[in-house]
Amino acid sequence: MGTEAEFGKLVVFGVGLIGGSFSLALKAVGQVGEVVGFGRSLGSLSQAIDLGIIDRVGANPGAEVADADIVLIATPVAQMPDIMAKIAPYLGPETLVTDGGSTKSDVVAAARAHLGDRIDRFVPGHPIAGAENSGPAAASAMLYRGKKVVLTPLPENSTLDVARLRSAWEWCGAQVHQLTPGEHDRVFAAVSHLPHLLSFALVHDLARRENGEQFFNFAASGFRDFTRIAASHPEMWRDICLANRAALLDELDRYQTQLGELRAALDQGDGAALEEVFAVARAARRAWADGKLKE
Amino acid sequence: MGTEAEFGKLVVFGVGLIGGSFSLALKAVGQVGEVVGFGRSLGSLSQAIDLGIIDRVGANPGAEVADADIVLIATPVAQMPDIMAKIAPYLGPETLVTDGGSTKSDVVAAARAHLGDRIDRFVPGHPIAGAENSGPAAASAMLYRGKKVVLTPLPENSTLDVARLRSAWEWCGAQVHQLTPGEHDRVFAAVSHLPHLLSFALVHDLARRENGEQFFNFAASGFRDFTRIAASHPEMWRDICLANRAALLDELDRYQTQLGELRAALDQGDGAALEEVFAVARAARRAWADGKLKE
Questions:
Q1: pLDDT in tens, B246-259
Q2: Residue A87: which H helix or E strand, with range?
Q3: Which residues in chain A have their CB less than 8 angstroms from residue B249's CB?
Q4: Mutate which of B282, B286, B292, B293 to test chain A, going by most A C-beta atoms within 10 A?
Q5: CATH number for the domain running over B7-179
Q6: Nearest to A121 by CA among A149, A147, A95, A155
Q7: CA distance B277 to chain A (A)
Q8: Which value does ipTM take for this structure?
Q9: How much is the pTM?
Q10: CA-to-CA distance for A23 and A100, rounded, in angstroms?
Q11: Topology of domain B184-289, per CATH?
Q12: From CA A255, how far away is CA A294, in angstroms rounded?
């Protein structure tokens, strides 16, 4: 009785926000059968059992992935090589492996180094979902509803495997897009990583001044919005910046060029040039906001 | 019957958001008697009458300021020299003159040039109140409640006049602070003008790329917050940047130095240095947000 789940068995490495929510979302729509979890903290694994995120705690990664339909590596990138090396020899012929990392080129490099000739099993992915909170308690079946997920298929991937992964994320309620790993890293360097760096920079520079409090005392709504992301997790963003270093340096250099143009216009008192830049920016920002409202 | 209003007669130049709200706020607490308005648009003046912002439209500036208790010049700075020159010869011996401009050094320079030996009458001010909307219809008696107002008294001002202006703004519900004009311009360059410039720069640079839409397509909440102020009025911000050019260039140079340090850390893969900057920024941003919640 009942339709068979699309994914009979899911193995998830990392049972926090990303991995936990993926499991809960698939369970909520009845599209996964058994979920086996791996993690580094017995507390988290125990909590994941209690919250219904996983059905079992795995003991032997190789044994568990052998008959898994889908494997999600939802850990920090630093932990991925070891996991990949451990599971590579045991992956089933149709076992689909994916990840949830914020950067892709480094994940792909790790996969090429540690999955070896099983690289075709690995379809990299990046769910764009808020990470304010973490851990199993933060996981939710609704996390991915209406959110974007970017898959960055490799040349070795089959069309079928990419379609299967797309299907999994669509069951989670996400809108799936595709980019190459390089495109992904450049895009997110520009619209996410660089803004974080710029915001951290502004706040840090004010905080280190002798009379810093006077500045903060008169900071208002514009400052509040611009610096909201400066309250982000330092370690997580250190890792993202280092992981996406090349693309981020490139974006930073482009931005410095733009700033230099503005500085020159300001220095020369060129109001027309300033106004042009501001008007183009305003129009683009409003068009983007309007576009999002229609989604 | 009833307490006498603190300000028998207010003359306001500019009957839009800033000037209109000042009048409405004082009227709402019964602390102003007659309000006479000057403006460049008959439509605005007529609307101001209809909305109860002003009691009369002025015809002769000199005649009106002669028996005014307080004069608020709530126009763009570009219009101030002319107004100041017109009223200077006629200001009563105790007529208090002030303004609502976002920058102060340039306003003070205009006042020194055009009020002549009546400069002692002029106590510069800057109400920090949102300017999303404009015009008489946007004016509200509540606009300044809980907001900050910065006065930048001149050496020529009497303690009494500064106290009178403080009192006026406090009747509007504002929290009054004092800085020198130079301090004001440096502070606002850092916490308001520079962030706007930086936000405009990011959006403009993305908008001018050939494949710009791809970037905007994947921009999410961090981008949204960071770029909210990039939707600000181009002309208004052109004027603010030009008016506060010196302080803004100085802040931009400091910021470029900070960015250079981050670039070097990123280039060298110095995760510890990045994390330190991010951690200091996060702590400062959170402390600021917590402090505001307690207000």
A1: 999 999 999 999 99
A2: helix A80-87
A3: 263, 266-267
A4: B282
A5: 3.40.50.720
A6: A95
A7: 6
A8: 0.91
A9: 0.91
A10: 13
A11: 6-phosphogluconate dehydrogenase C-terminal fold (1.10.3660)
A12: 29
